[in-house]
Amino acid sequence: MADDTLIHDPKGGLPRLLTIMRRLRDPESGCPWDIEQDFGTIAPYTIEEAYEVADAIEREAWGELKDELGDLLLQTVFHAQMADEKGLFDFNAVADGISDKMVARHPHVFGDESRDKSAEQQTRDWETVKAAERAAKAQTGVLDGVAVGLPALLRAVKLQKRAARVGFDWPDASHVLDKITEEAAELREAAETLPHDKVEEEFGDLLFVMANLARHMGVEPEAALRRANGKFTRRFERIEALLAERGKRPEDSDLEEMDALWDQAKMEERR
């Protein structure tokens, strides 16, 4: 019978978590759901957990952040356990790999380079090191290595940053704003005259340029959109509350009434 001492040790730390994951994946005594999973089925959960970490940070919910970081750590442990079972690598190899990368990318901390440099210079040095790493992997194109599986908005920004490093970029945000006007006009025309797939293409072009504007303005577009989602949620919930005071629900109202309540909710937030 297995020794469960470590599994039930509340101070067992990372070794405890690794042991739990091995047990969950044990073909004889593990959990049927965990046993059935593979890299592909777990990947969506990994992405979801990363966003939940970002959400906790956005809301400054520090108690929740601890739990969300634990959930994200579990995803790494899960993938590493499946890789170990296939003879690919184990968790220690993952930890050693990222440790080696951090040491190599920070010679001004762990080597003999001077620490007397700005954050901007360090960013440039970081990109030089990463470019060398891509070259070692035979990734010679400027855009090589930008993961296809990234959320589309994040990938758009990363692609634009890569292109900007070799000079393929507008000189300032005013040019991007002009491009947004152009793309919006093309979208309007497409909506009136072209089939749906062309409308979708033009809409994508407009979103891509919006992501570029965010980069030029130093705005993180994903964070900005999360904030906008939160603001919309707050204000619409206020509309529902105000309607409830009148004995109504949104479906009992109309756009004119709800629009007026939206303006009221905006004014309340500004007080």
UniProtKB/TrEMBL annotation:
Q: Which CDD domains match?
A: NTP-PPase_MazG_Cterm, NTP-PPase_MazG_Nterm
- Catalyzes what? ATP + H2O = AMP + diphosphate + H(+)
**Keyword tags:** Hydrolase
Any one Gene Ontology MF annotation carried by this entry is: ATP diphosphatase activity
- Provide the NTP pyrophosphohydrolase MazG-like domain boundaries: 38-110
**InterPro entries registered for this protein in UniProt:** MazG-like_dom, NTP-PPase_MazG-like_C, NTP-PPase_MazG-like_N, NTP_PyrPHydrolase_MazG, PRib-ATP_PPHydrolase-like
Q: Name one GO biological process term.
A: TTP catabolic process
- Enzymatic class: hydrolase
**Chain intervals for the UniProt region annotation (Disordered):** 247-271
Record's keyword annotation contains ATP-binding: no
Q: What is its EC number?
A: 3.6.1.8
* Ribosomal protein found in the keyword field: no
The similarity annotation says:
Belongs to the nucleoside triphosphate pyrophosphohydrolase family.
Q: Which NCBIfam families does the UniProt entry name for this protein?
A: mazG, PRK09562.1
Q: Which protein is depicted?
A: Nucleoside triphosphate pyrophosphohydrolase
Q: What is the lineage of its organism?
A: Bacteria, Pseudomonadati, Pseudomonadota, Alphaproteobacteria, Rhodobacterales
